Amino acid sequence: MAEYICWFSKDTIIIKPPKKSPILLRMIVLVFAMVCGVFICSVCLKQISTHSKIKIEDIQVIERPFSDNPPTQMRIPIMHFPHPETFSRAECVHNPVRYFAILSMQRSGSGWFETLLNSHVNVSSNGEIFSVLDRRRNASSIIKTLDKLYNLDWFTSASKNECSAAVGFKWMLNQGLIENHEAVVEYFNARGVSALFLLRRNLLRRMVSVLSNSYDRHAKLLNGTHKSHVHSAEEAEALSKYKPTINSTLLVADLKKMEIMAARALEYFNSTRHIVLYYEDLVKNCTKLKDVQEFLGLPYMELTSRQVKIHKGPLSDHIENWEDVNKTLAGTEYENFLKADY
Ligand SMILES: *[C@@H]1O[C@H](CO)[C@@H](O)[C@H](O)[C@H]1NC(C)=O
Ligand SMILES: *[C@@H]1O[C@H](CO)[C@@H](O)[C@H](O)[C@H]1NC(C)=O
Ligand SMILES: *[C@@H]1O[C@H](CO)[C@@H](O)[C@H](O)[C@H]1NC(C)=O
Ligand SMILES: *[C@@H]1O[C@H](CO)[C@@H](O)[C@H](O)[C@H]1NC(C)=O
Ligand SMILES: *[C@@H]1O[C@H](CO)[C@@H](O)[C@H](O)[C@H]1NC(C)=O
Ligand SMILES: *[C@@H]1O[C@H](CO)[C@@H](O)[C@H](O)[C@H]1NC(C)=O
Ligand SMILES: *[C@@H]1O[C@H](CO)[C@@H](O)[C@H](O)[C@H]1NC(C)=O
């Protein structure tokens, strides 16, 4: 109060208000301050809540299938310490094991991808175990098979046994996976199985590969043996000599069907820990394999495969009725499949 008075001239002292008024003024200021405080607090709370809402929306956007940046849930994979019934894990008994499954479609590069994974000293990817009908007849036979595999009691040429740090297999979407998706998703989430989706961007290329492979089943172009994968440029060339004819009436509908199947699988498995990989990206970008190893919690290694790509170069070289196909897809949503050169 003293200071306040010092600032003013004598005149102001004369017009000094009655003694009671400063208290009233202080009360008004106090009430005003309280109102302000309450208001500021409410604004703050609102901002905090909208902030967290935005965050949740962001996460949903990231996890939405078919975004350009493949959704990668980089949560740490669950570690397991299985006790196989058939052998002892010996010196590796204290090494954790991660469970995975490669979810793919025929002729999407999953064979090649699996050989890459199996070139890692600590990965056992046991092939297409559900190609055998009896193992996928119903949900309980599927779960029984999975239990055995993840307990390391499944033996294939790829099994690394005691020193496996990641164990899995490849599973085609049409091998009981879509039909039993509820049971499988539940199993994956309960047991901590990570899904590696391996899909193809160019579904027309996949179609050429499916038709050629199916033709070779009977034609056996390589000296009377049928091969789905090859290890030399000569064999690749011999197989790619056959040019399939594609039924253009059904082409767009068939491509749509493939697209829907992949989208549906991604939707069903969206609650699992998963990564979405595209064959074309893996071919072009070595860094993707690093992402895969990181996703599986593996020590990093260079991965190699002896497999050789069969259909190289432009698609027009590999389709008998190219003109027809080119005309059919021109102006459709699949037009870019004609141009992409991989
Ligand atoms: C599932 O299929 C197996 C044969 O693969 C059969 O033995 C079993 O009874 C079936 N279980 C159910 C619940 O249908
Ligand atoms: C990977 O395998 C090697 C050789 O079998 C073993 O020495 C090592 O401990 C394994 N690493 C992990 C993380 O399991
Ligand atoms: C297949 O035939 C080719 C010649 O057409 C020959 O060079 C190659 O050695 C044969 N491969 C096998 C496994 O017999
Ligand atoms: C294409 O498929 C349709 C429907 O199955 C069939 O009617 C037609 O004959 C086929 N066209 C050729 C060229 O095979
Ligand atoms: C997964 O997809 C289903 C069906 O579209 C949807 O209801 C659910 O919210 C999705 N879950 C997540 C975690 O995105
Ligand atoms: C290769 O993949 C990595 C990791 O997924 C990504 O960050 C990078 O941008 C890719 N590079 C090219 C040239 O696409
Ligand atoms: C495909 O058809 C378009 C016309 O629609 C033409 O310009 C283009 O050259 C054709 N592509 C090939 C590879 O034949």
TrEMBL record:
Signal peptide: none annotated. It comes from the Eukaryota. Keywords: Membrane, Transmembrane, Transmembrane helix. InterPro entries: Nod_factor_sulfotransferase, P-loop_NTPase. The chain crosses the membrane at residues 23-45. This is Sulfotransferase. It comes from Manihot esculenta (Cassava).
